[in-house]
């Protein structure tokens, strides 16, 4: 079978890495559309279409139909249209049953990309903490320009918030899919410490909330000495590393302003008013910049509102497809990955990203299938 081929393993790894590489997907259309194609191919070979839900299939057809009607009648931007087609496809295929696959595919799709992105962020943190006085025309500054601009690690993304969400989601998926089973416990401990330090460095509010949820969900599993170690080392880093110590105030202010939505509130009200006067098939798959600086329209951060804004009444079957998948997944799958994806998708356009859609697919492996990992090297 094709899924037992070593080439397919590396194909899965490259697909996840490219999905997280916003630096390529946003700046180059070739990589963006290549990424769409790779995701479709990868997920297609992991799904058993013989057990497709009739309701999900019907809702998917209706969603494609209404988006096509809206695009023809109201206009569209090609990149947004293709992204919506990808979103519908991933929601549909995430509701399908999965084929029997080797565990190695999940390692290459989740665990190995997680380790790769973690190490990239760690190296970026080292560069930042060295306080290098680089010339703006130097090779190192040009390569790490966005890192130095944000003064935080960004991985392969364009900014630290998405990067921190990526590594946290991959860490949770690796844990919940039973992939982080190293022969030497020190490896897992080291990866967890690096993860905590990078999340602190990124200083993202949504990722902090997600990290707290992860700890609360898994507190009963943690050894108390391990918890002490995980909190002690980052604390010493804050105290003794000058750069991190200087940033403590900024980080604290961001935590205090966790519920601050200035700017987002204005954009939200703007979108709400537009929806109240929207034509039956919406305003089309277009976008523009609000005076707050946020993107509004069919790419607004709040996914349901953007959907209604774009395709109007045509969003009903799409929303039903989404709600059906989430409710079903919360009953049959591991809850935390689904909850994190929902949290990341409310204030940020997480499910507009290729990485977010990939995460949704892998987070919807059912619990009864995951139990097989303790018996044999297979997922169903």
Question: Can you walk me through this structure?
Answer:
The protein has 380 residues and is mainly α. It has a domain at 2-45 and 100-260 and 333-379. It has 19 helices and 6 strands. The chain has helices at residues 6-20, 22-25, 29-44, 54-74, 78-94, 103-129, 139-143, 145-150, 160-176, 185-202, 205-218, 224-240, 242-256, 264-276, 303-311, 315-332, 335-345, 354-363, 367-370, and strands at 47-48, 97-98, 101-102, 287-289, 295-297, 378-379. Strands 1-2 form a two-stranded antiparallel sheet. It has a two-stranded antiparallel sheet with strand order 3-6.
Distance between the termini: 15 Å
* SSE pattern, N- to C-terminal: HHHEHHEEHHHHHHHHHEEHHHHHE
What proportion of the residues form beta strands (DSSP E)? Answer: under 5%
Helical content class: 55-70%
Structural class: mainly alpha
In order across it, which strands form the biggest sheet? Answer: 1-2
Sheet bearing the most strands, described?
2 strands, antiparallel
Return the average pLDDT rounded to an integer: 77
- Work out the radius of gyration: 21 Å
Secondary structure: elements and pairs:
Blueprint: H1 6-20, H2 22-25, H3 29-44, E1 47-48, H4 54-74, H5 78-94, E2 97-98, E3 101-102, H6 103-129, H7 139-143, H8 145-150, H9 160-176, H10 185-202, H11 205-218, H12 224-240, H13 242-256, H14 264-276, E4 287-289, E5 295-297, H15 303-311, H16 315-332, H17 335-345, H18 354-363, H19 367-370, E6 378-379
Antiparallel strand pairs: 1-2, 3-6, 4-5
Helix pairs in contact: 1-3, 1-6, 1-18, 3-5, 4-5, 4-16, 5-16, 5-18, 6-9, 6-10, 9-10, 9-11, 9-17, 9-18, 10-12, 11-17, 12-13, 14-15, 15-16
């Amino acid at each position: 079978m094709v899924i037992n081929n070593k080439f397919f393993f590396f194909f899965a790894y490259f697909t996840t890495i490219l999905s997280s590489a916003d630096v390529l997907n946003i700046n180059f259309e070739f990589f963006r559309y290549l990424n769409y194609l790779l995701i479709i191919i990868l997920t297609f070979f992991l799904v058993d279409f013989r057990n497709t839900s009739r309701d999900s299939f019907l809702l998917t057809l209706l969603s494609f139909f209404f988006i096509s009607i809206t695009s023809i009648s109201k206009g569209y931007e090609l990149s947004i249209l293709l992204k919506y087609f990808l979103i519908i496809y991933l929601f549909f295929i995430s509701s399908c049953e999965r084929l029997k696959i080797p565990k190695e595919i999940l390692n290459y799709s989740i665990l190995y990309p997680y380790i790769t992105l973690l190490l990239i962020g760690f190296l970026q943190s080292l560069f930042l903490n060295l306080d290098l006085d680089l010339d703006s025309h130097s090779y190192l500054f040009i390569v790490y320009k966005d890192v130095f601009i944000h003064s935080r690690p960004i991985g392969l993304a364009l900014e630290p918030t998405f990067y921190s969400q990526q590594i946290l989601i991959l860490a949770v998926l690796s844990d919940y899919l039973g992939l982080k089973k190293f022969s030497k416990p020190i490896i897992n401990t080291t990866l967890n410490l690096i993860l905590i330090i990078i999340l602190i460095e990124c200083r993202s509010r949504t990722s902090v909330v997600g990290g707290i949820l992860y700890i609360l969900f898994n507190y009963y599993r943690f050894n108390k000495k391990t918890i002490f170690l995980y909190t002690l080392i980052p604390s010493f880093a804050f105290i003794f590393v000058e750069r991190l110590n200087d940033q403590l105030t900024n980080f604290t202010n961001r935590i205090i302003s966790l519920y601050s939505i200035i700017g987002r509130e204005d954009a939200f009200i703007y979108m709400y008013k537009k929806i109240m006067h929207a034509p039956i098939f919406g305003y089309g798959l277009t976008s523009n910049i609000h005076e707050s600086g946020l993107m509004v329209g069919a790419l607004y951060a709040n996914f349901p509102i953007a959907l209604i804004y774009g395709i109007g009444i045509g969003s009903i079957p799409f929303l039903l497809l989404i709600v059906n998948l989430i409710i079903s997944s919360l009953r049959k799958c591991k809850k935390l990955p689904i909850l994190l994806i929902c949290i990341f998708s409310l204030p940020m356009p997480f499910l507009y990203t290729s990485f977010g859609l990939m995460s949704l697919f892998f987070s919807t492996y059912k619990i009864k299938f995951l139990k097989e990992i303790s018996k044999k090297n297979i997922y169903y």
